[in-house]
């Protein structure tokens, strides 16, 4: 009977530790919402995740311009190094980088009938897409 009691106690302890471990695991990062920074007429056509936010690529079909903005998941008074950039594939980057509380950008580029490279950075983490959205 004593061995059975020990097994039940040990089993309960292991289950409690396992459940506790699940509770302290980090959750998947939330995506930031597009903030409309590119202006009217721009619609989100793609996005790239970052641990602390999202890079949005928008397009305005009436004027042929693409626009990139990097948005933090949660705004704060704490400044973070951020960047948003776009270029014709292989060309010179147009970017907005610095220390921001909410977002970097917008940066715009006329790219009708062309491929683009676009990217965003928050606190040193970079996500990019090269030679994309050709057309």
Please describe the topology of this protein.
Elements: H1 2-24, E1 43-50, E2 53-60, E3 65-72, E4 80-88, E5 94-100, E6 103-110, E7 116-122, E8 125-132
Antiparallel strand pairs: 1-2, 2-3, 3-6, 4-5, 4-7, 7-8
The coarse silhouette is globular
Got a strand count?
Answer: 8
Q: Number of DSSP helices?
A: 1
Rg (C-alpha, Å): 22 Å
Average pLDDT number: 83
Biggest sheet strand line-up: 1-2-3-6
Strand proportion, as a percent range, falls in over 45%
Low-confidence runs (pLDDT<50, min 5 residues)?
1-28
Q: Specify the biggest β-sheet.
A: 4 strands, antiparallel
The string of secondary-structure elements, in order, is HEEEEEEEE
Structural class: alpha+beta
State the separation between the terminal residues, measured CA to CA: 76 Å
Q: What percentage of residues falls in helices of 4 or more residues?
A: 10-25%
Structure explained in plain terms:
This protein has 135 residues and is an alpha+beta fold. Helices cover 17% and strands 47% of the residues. It has 1 helix and 8 strands. The chain has one helix spanning 2-24, and strands spanning 43-50, 53-60, 65-72, 80-88, 94-100, 103-110, 116-122, 125-132. The strands form 2 sheets. It has a 4-stranded antiparallel sheet with strand order 1-2-3-6, with no helix packed on it. It is globular, with a radius of gyration of 22 Å. Residues 1-28 have low confidence and may be disordered.
Give me a quick take on this structure.
This protein is an alpha+beta fold. The protein has one helix spanning 2-24, and strands at residues 43-50, 53-60, 65-72, 80-88, 94-100, 103-110, 116-122, 125-132. The chain has a 4-stranded antiparallel sheet, with no helix packed on it. A 4-stranded antiparallel sheet has the order 5-4-7-8, with no helix packed on it.
């Amino acid at each position: 009977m004593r061995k059975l009691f020990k097994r039940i106690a040990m089993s309960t302890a292991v289950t409690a530790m396992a459940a506790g471990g699940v509770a302290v695991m980090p959750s998947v990062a939330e995506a930031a919402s597009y903030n409309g920074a590119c202006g009217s007429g721009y619609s989100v056509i793609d996005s790239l995740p970052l641990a602390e936010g999202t890079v949005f690529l928008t397009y305005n079909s009436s004027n042929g311009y693409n626009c990139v903005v990097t948005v933090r998941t949660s705004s704060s008074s704490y400044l973070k190094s951020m960047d948003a950039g776009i270029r014709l594939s292989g060309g010179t980057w147009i970017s907005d980088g610095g220390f921001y509380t909410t977002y970097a950008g917008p940066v715009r580029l006329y790219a009708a009938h062309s491929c683009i490279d676009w990217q965003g950075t928050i606190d040193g983490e970079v996500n990019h897409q090269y030679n994309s959205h050709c057309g």
